[in-house]
Structure formats: structure tokens, C-alpha cells
Amino acid sequence: MTTFWILQTLNTLQYAALLFLIAAGLSVSFGLMGFVNLAHGALYMLGAFIGVTLSVQAGFWAALFLAPVTVGAIGLILYLGLLGRVARLGPMPQVLVSFGLVFIATEIVRILWGDVPLSIDIPSALRGRLDMLSVSYPLYRLFVIAIGAVVSLLLWLGVNRTGLGAALRASVENRTMARAIGIDTDRLFLWVFTLGAALAGLGGVVAAPITSASAGMAVSALVPALIVTVIGGMGSISGTAAGALVVAAIEVFGAAIWPAASSVLIYAALAAALIWRPQGLFKGAVSH
Amino acid sequence: MDRRESSQYHRVEDCTKDPLMNRYCIACLLAAVALPAAADTKVGLLLPASGNYAALGQDIEDGFRMAIAESGRSDIEIVEADTEADPQTGLTMARKLVMQDEADVLVGVVSSAVLGAVRNFVHQSQVPLIVANAGNSDATGKDCSAYITRVSFSNDQLNRPMGEWMAAQGISSVYTLAPDYAAGQQMIGAFSAAFEAAGGDIVGGEFTPFGKTEDFGPYLAKAQASGAEALYVFYGGADAISFVRQYDSFGLAEEMPLYSVGFLTAPLYLREQGKAATGVIGALHYLPSLESPENDTFVAAYQAEHPDTLPSEYVVAGYDAGRLLLGALEEGVEGREALANALPNVSYTGPRGPLKIDPATNNIVQNVYVFETVEGDEGMTHKLLDTVEAVQDAPNGCAMP
Fold first, then answer.
1. How far apart are CA A213 and CA A84, in angstroms?
2. Average pLDDT of B74-78?
3. What is the mean pLDDT of chain A?
4. Is beta strand B129-131 parallel, antiparallel or unpaired with respect to B148-150?
5. How do beta strands B363-376 and B353-358 pair?
6. pLDDT band at residue A25 under the 50/70/90 scheme
7. How far is CA B195 from its chain centroid?
8. Distance, CA of B113 to CA of B87 (rounded, Å)
9. Spatial separation of the C-alpha atoms in residues A106 and A102, rounded to whole Å
10. Which bin fits A120, alpha (ψ -120 to 50), beta or left (φ > 0)?
């Protein structure tokens, strides 16, 4: 039976790694600009489909690198052309416009890639399983866990140990004050938004070999990512990582222990978080 | 009143002033006069053209148009309406086709939920409906209607033979997985009942949240821990591809072979599943690799239009819906009532083998093919293991008037 729990723990880590990649960008744009970018799920979906095409043309490793770059560029263009203007208009226009983009992206994906879901072949180096701790676990899923760990470590270092990170933290805490001391918050936000889009794209291309790329991804990824953001607290990398772990653990162990309630448990956790820690797990109790 | 008169005046003036507009107006008038005489039978296609099931809708329409084109008849007019996968939209579109377009017969319905939504309307308005996909067992069971004829399959029809067949192979214990919605529950229910009646043991199973489960890892670990001899599942669409690939990546094939109702490794998904699908055993009412003169002709005709693609079970369902309608029309019937009465009497041997309609339920009686997914010379293909002939559903509460 221990085998079973080790397997489920690994499943939790792997799902948390994916959730982290999707939610990091969402969380930072929430925290930094108060921008509810629902189109983030669409960027994740585009990452998967662009990854499918690139992996056919140039192989998995090229796709793993180029798909996030492409999606980051798409995010940049979207922000400069549309979302940046909407970001100043307040929550309602943000929600409407960014959710509208989800529908547009879904239709474009259906026109370009068709209705049949597509998949990416796992490269030969990552095929097969690794025997460890008395379980045999798919190598590719371990690779996903590793990507999640490396990206979260790099982001954490970037935010907490660099000057740019300090500017970002200051802007999240108090945007007006940050501007007053000479931080160009608009430009900072543009680059953070682009990085967030690229991370969503990375999430998509990494997920595609496991879940396959389908037009439903844009919405199906958005809901858990929003919950991660709310539970973890907006704008904090450690908070997003913790939120991803909590949500993944609830979903995986919920499915294992109490499957009948597994689809509801996550919303119960969300409600609990909103009642007891509306500012999120990793934010100080008084933060304005 | 004044306003309407002035707008009519404008329209007439538009016609006379602009020569192009004039020609257009005359064409419209001619078309309006000519239309009623041009078509004797109007078919309303009730299929999803957008949303999750759009690819299935397209296949059914291709198959239906193929049958009509083969017949060479020009007296059949086809009107399309997009049901999406939404019961409410489905009902609205069924009303539109019947009341506004005055269709003589409806063909289609992909989603079981949409079939549930249009059932009463079809029954009360007495319009014949040829069901070309939705497997909802109730529609030819307790909710059956003289106006509903199904030419695809019922959920019971495919799963019951598989339960009996697996027990006959000496498999004693099974773990089941399916999405948590009506079709998933009906399929697993029918399988489990038949498997247990034949002496097998269902050691456990799970219904996974429908549309919310993309990662089957947690459920596969549970299945593995159950210690069952085999795994029986129903999944379709994106789930079918993800499930098979994830099952393969966990290396379960060595200890727990995968059985399914055959949609799991249907031709539509097989290319994306690749080698991961090797060894999966399923049951379906049609396989493109069936060897019969009827199927050879059918596959060749389909490939003339769609090179490098094999016809799916959806194309066949659309095609057979067309053949059924043509069969009834050849009897010389006219009008909704006469069509509804004639449809269940049609029987023939088509691409999927001999088929007829059971007059007790109006559900199709057909062969069910048990197959294994294997690697062929040109990619993955299906190897026929067994044929369960002329599978007929019990009335399941159906009382035809």
C-alpha cells in the first residue's frame, strides 16, 4: 500500500509543477496590476498547439524552447495592442475582453489545428519508467516535476535576490509609492506579463504529451490556476508554489480517498481560503 | 402601417433603379416560386457544427450526403441546423427545422443529452427522427417512440456483449473507469451487469469528473492498487487519447490489460495514440478494416473524397441513416407519418454487415465486433478477434403503441 501513496505523492508533485507554470504569470499580473487576465488559459492552450506543430517540424527539445518564446511574443503583442489599454479600465472590461479572447483563441485553434485532439511524442530520452522507492514512475512525469522545481527556484531567486525583483516586489506592495521612487511600473509590468505568457506557453508544451492538446484546455486550465492564485496569494512566487501544491494535493488525494467529492473539494478549499485567509497563504495578515 | 408601406415602396424602387438589384429581385422571386416544386422530401440535419462534437457532426453529415449522392436522387433537400453539444440549443434547432423549415424527417443528434432534450418534441410533433449517434439507452428503452428510429448503437448494445465475452475468456476480476455522466454510467452499468451475470467480479471502479479530468494518474494508481485482473473503461474525445497514453506511460499493460468499449481506440484517435494503443481490446459496431464486399466499396468511395482517411463509425452511422431513409422512400411513402411507419421495416447488408431495425424498440439490430488494436504495416490498425452476431437489446421498458 505504501507504493500507492508514493505514487500519489509523485502525481501530486507532477500536477503541482504544471499548475505552478500556469499560475505564476496569472498571479503576478493579479498582484502587480490587479489585472484579471482570463486569456492566460488561452496562452497555455496556444503553447500546447504551437508545441505540437514545432515538435513535428523540429523535434521535442526545440518545441520545448521555441513554443514558450512564441507564446511570450504573442503575449507581448496582445498586451501592447489590446490588454494594456484595457488594464487601465478596471476589472469589468478586463474580464470581458480577456474572456472574449479565450473564445477567439479557441476558434482560431479549431480552424488551424482541427477538432481532433493532438499529442506530442515523448522524446526517446524521456520514455520509459524509473524504478525508485519501490515504485516505477514514468520518466516524463519526473521530468515535469524537475522543470517545475527549476523554474520556481529561478523565479524565486529572480524575485528575491535581484534588483529587478526588488522593484517588482515594491510595485506589488504599493504601486503608487513604487512609481514615486522612480520605478517604471508600466514597463516592468510589460516584461512580467511577457514572462508570464511564456511560462503559460511552457506549461502548455510540457502538458501536451500527457494530457494532449485540445480546444477545451483554455478554460479547463484557467479554473484551477485562478484557485491557485487565490489560495496562494497574489503576486508572490512562494505563494503560487504553495498554492499549486495545496490544490494539486487536494485534487490527487481527493481522487484517491474520496472520489465522489473530488470535484467539489477544491471549491471547498477555495471557500475556506476566502473566509480565513482572503489575502492568501503567503501574504502578511495586514497588507495594503 | 405607414412605415411598412413606405419600406415596401423603397424596396420596389431599389429594384427598378439599380439594374443589378433588379436582376437579384427577379432571381429571388423565381426562386421563391420554384422552391416548393424542387424538393419532395426535406431532411433536417440536427448535428453539432461547433463545440466539442463538431468533428463527429461533420463525419455524420459526410456519410449521410454520401448515401444520398450514391442514390442519384435529386428530390431530397437537406437543411442544416447547429445543435452544438447543448440540449437547449438542440431543442430550439429541432423546433426550427420542424416548424419553420417544415422538414419531413430529422437526421442526427450526437449527444445523448441532446437526444433526451428533443425526445418529447419529436414524439409530440410526430416527425420521424433517425438517430445517427447518441447511444442514450432510454431513447429505445423506457422513453421509446414510434417516431424515433436509431441506426447507430445503444450504450447497452456495445457493452453487454463485451461483459459476456470477457467472462468467457476466463477473466475473473475487473476494475472500471469512465467519465461521470449519463453515457459513462450507462456503459459501465451495462458492462458490469453482464460481466457479473456471467460469473465475473467487479472489484471496484471510479467515475471521473466529466470534462474536468485530464490527468488520469491518480485513478490509474487506484486501479493498479485494486489488484484486478483487467481494466475496463469508456472514454472518448481528448480523454481517449490522454487516457491511453497515460495508461501506457505507467507501464500498466504488463500487469493489467486494458479492455474498453471500442470508442477508446476508434480510428479518429488511433493516429495520436500511436504505439501506446497496442494490445487494447474493444468492441464496436463498425471497423474500417472489416472484410466484406460492401465495406470495401464503402471505404473506397469514402477515400475517393477523403484520401488517407478511413471512415469512422460516425461516417457509417450517417451513411446508414441515409440508406434507411432511401429505403423507406423507395417504398413510395410520402409525408411524416408514412415515413415513420416505413423506416423500421428497412433492412439490408451495409458496410458494417447485416442490419435491421427491431420493431419492438426501433433500435438497430447489428453485429458487434470484438477487436484488438495492433501495429500494422501502415501504422496502427484493428485486428478482428470475434464477431457477436445480431445483437438485439431487450425492450428495457419500451412499449410501442
1. 28
2. 90
3. 88
4. parallel
5. antiparallel
6. confident
7. 25
8. 6
9. 6
10. beta
pLDDT score of B363 more than 60: yes
Please name the member of B206, B211, B218 whose beta carbon is closest to the beta carbon of A11: B218
pLDDT at res. B5: 41
- Chain B residues with beta carbon closer than 8 angstroms to that of A216: 52, 211, 238
From B44, B47, B43, B98, select the one nearest B315 (Cα to Cα).
B47
CB contact (8 A) between residue A8 and residue B214: no
Rounded distance between C-alpha atoms, residue A42 and residue A101, angstroms: 8
Cell of B85: 453539444
Distance in Å, alpha carbon of A277 to nearest chain B alpha carbon: 26
Q: What distance in Å separates the CA atoms of residue B273 and residue B197, rounded to the nearest whole number?
A: 33
Per-residue confidence band for B20, with pLDDT thresholds at 50, 70 and 90:
low
Give the model's pLDDT for residue B286.
Answer: 93
* Alpha carbon A95 to chain centroid, angstroms: 18
Summarize the confidence of residues A79-101 as an average pLDDT. Answer: 88
Identify the pLDDT of residue B7. Answer: 42
Mean of the pLDDT values across residues A150-174?
89
Whole-model pTM?
0.84
Residue A3 C-alpha, separation from nearest chain B C-alpha, in angstroms: 9
A183 close to A8: Cβ distance less than 8 angstroms = no
Amino acid identity of residue B11, one-letter, is R
Pairing, β B41-47 against β B230-233: unpaired
Residue B88 and residue B116 in contact, taking contact as beta carbons nearer than 8 Å: no
Going A100 to A102 to A105 to A106, the CA torsion angle's sign is negative
At A55, the amino acid letter reads S
Provide ipTM, 2 decimals. Answer: 0.85
Instruction: Determine, for residues B218 and A209 on separate chains, whether the beta-carbon distance falls below 8 Å.
Output: no
Phi, psi of B355 (to 5 degrees): -140, 145
What is the spatial distance between Cα A206 and Cα A60, in angstroms, rounded to a whole number? Answer: 10
Task: Give the DSSP per-residue string, B298-311.
Answer: HHHHHHHHSTT-PP
